[in-house]
Amino acid sequence: MKSWLEKRALLSPDQIGLYAGKSAWTFREMNEEATELAEKISPHIQNQSPVALLITNQPQSVFLIHALQKIRVPVLMLNNRLSQKEWQYQLKDSQAQLVIYQDQFVINTDRAISIDELKTGECWPYVPFEEEDVCSVMYTSGTTGNPKGVMQTYDNHFSSASGSAFNIGHRPDDIWMCAVPLFHISGYSILMRSVIYGIGVRLYEKFDERSIHADLVNGKGSIISVVTTMLERLLDVKNERYHSFFRCMILGGGPAPLHMVERCHDEHIPVFQSYGMTETASQFTTLSPADATRKTGASGKPLFPGEIKITDEQGEGCDDYVIGEILVKGPSVTKGYLNNPSATQEAFSEGWLKTGDVGYLDEEGFLFVADRRSDLIISGGENVYPAEVESVLSGHPAVKEAGVVGKKDDRWGEVPAAFIVLIEEVEKETLHNFVSKRLAGYKVPKMYRFVNELPRNAAGKLVRRKLKEEINHESV
């Protein structure tokens, strides 16, 4: 089977597929760029193991992703905000055969090559791919243990794109504004939808609310994906009505505050609240603007043909309005975790993926997410798992144990806060520097509190809920 970009270049050669700054590329030109890169990457390919990309939102990054699809090897999208230690874990766990990186990054491995060092040479023989083959891999941290590599197949991406189009509609002149990172499923899925639908992507190197506001006003895009903090920043600078060409703002990364939803409704901003995860190749449920006011707080219904059910601790189905674990099923759901059959087996129950999130369904089938995993911290749309931060903190010789929870924050929604029991005295700055060298900036605690003991239940398990109540009660 041809790569998707090759197929799209055949069908819509003169349609513009990518806008970046003042430049634009047709699908034919994109295919030419990707082919040239594929010829340069190919001599470095030894097998069908993943190739890792350490990149930013640049046009060349888009061409690299499509080049790897031409070579038929999975692409491991490295989060460029992570630390060296985190990158090294992902490379080892995924058995990545190569890392291709932009010059601004430094990565300590002998399997790495910068984009500028790629030279054309003897080609690796191309292997035709099938829909069930792995297209991309993205690591997500679990509530316990090490991060896991989520495998996203071509069928996962195609099904996600189809479900989205069935829900929000499809226009041949659509332009999807991409200001979210390409290493996130939200950004990567936009590139896949572009070649599947045959529409343009307007790529932004970073999120700048004034620039994007101006583009929304001037009709530079019809669809945009945002998280709550991005929407808030857009509302802060909004002083004109958006162009009529703009028709859809997909909001993920946690439910939006009521006042924000109401303002969007009053100002005729077409916000589609959604729920999804890396394991579902982007959005899985979506709430349309028509239902936004009567279903405040809901994340919508599953996109066609996905299914959702809520179960209790015994795995039995819950009645309407009864909170339980959210399980999902459908063709956009991952087939499992890379090189981790035990985690895959644990995550599935009779074909249903156990998300670890809790929520309920109402009588109409609308999903309400009660908590994004009971202890998960969502900071600026980024997932922070307390167990991972606690593990790093506990690695300091002065720390006996640590408990990390989310503290409410006006800008980021939540930020990590750490409660620490010490073995010996240590400065907060010393701990902060220790953690900063080992974790991405958004995972580093913004507050440290030394305590005599941490709250635990009768089984000895840390009760983070009490810590969260304490820290947020004080911030009110």
Termini gap:
57 Å
Helix and strand content put the structural class at alpha/beta
Overall domain count: 2
The chain-level mean pLDDT equals: 91
Percent range for β-strand residues: 25-35%
Molecular shape: globular
Helix content range:
25-40%
Tell me, what is the CATH class of the largest domain? Alpha Beta
Structure description:
This protein is of the alpha/beta class and 476 residues long. It has two domains: 364 residues, Rossmann fold (3-Layer(aba) Sandwich), CATH 3.40.50.12780; 99 residues, GMP Synthetase, Chain A, domain 3. The protein has 14 helices and 25 strands. The strands form five sheets. Strands 2-1-10-9-11-12-13-14-15 form a nine-stranded mixed beta sheet, with helices on both faces. A six-stranded mixed beta sheet has the order 6-5-3-4-7-8, with helices on both faces. Strands 16, 17, 18, 19 and 20 form a five-stranded antiparallel beta sheet that branches. A hairpin with a 2-residue loop joins β21 and β22. The model has no long low-confidence stretch (mean pLDDT 91).
Write the layout of secondary structure elements.
Blueprint: H1 4-11, E1 16-20, E2 23-26, H2 27-41, E3 51-54, H3 59-71, E4 75-77, H4 84-94, E5 98-101, E6 112-114, E7 134-140, E8 148-153, H5 154-168, E9 175-178, H6 185-197, E10 200-203, H7 209-217, E11 223-227, H8 228-237, E12 248-252, H9 258-266, E13 271-277, E14 282-287, H10 289-292, E15 301-302, E16 307-311, E17 324-329, H11 341-347, E18 348-349, E19 352-361, E20 367-371, E21 377-379, E22 382-384, H12 386-394, E23 399-409, E24 413-422, H13 428-436, E25 447-450, H14 464-475
Parallel strand pairs: 1-10, 3-4, 3-5, 4-7, 5-6, 9-10, 9-11, 11-12, 12-13, 24-25
Antiparallel strand pairs: 1-2, 7-8, 13-14, 14-15, 16-17, 17-19, 18-19, 19-20, 21-22, 23-24
Helix pairs in contact: 1-2, 2-3, 5-6, 7-8
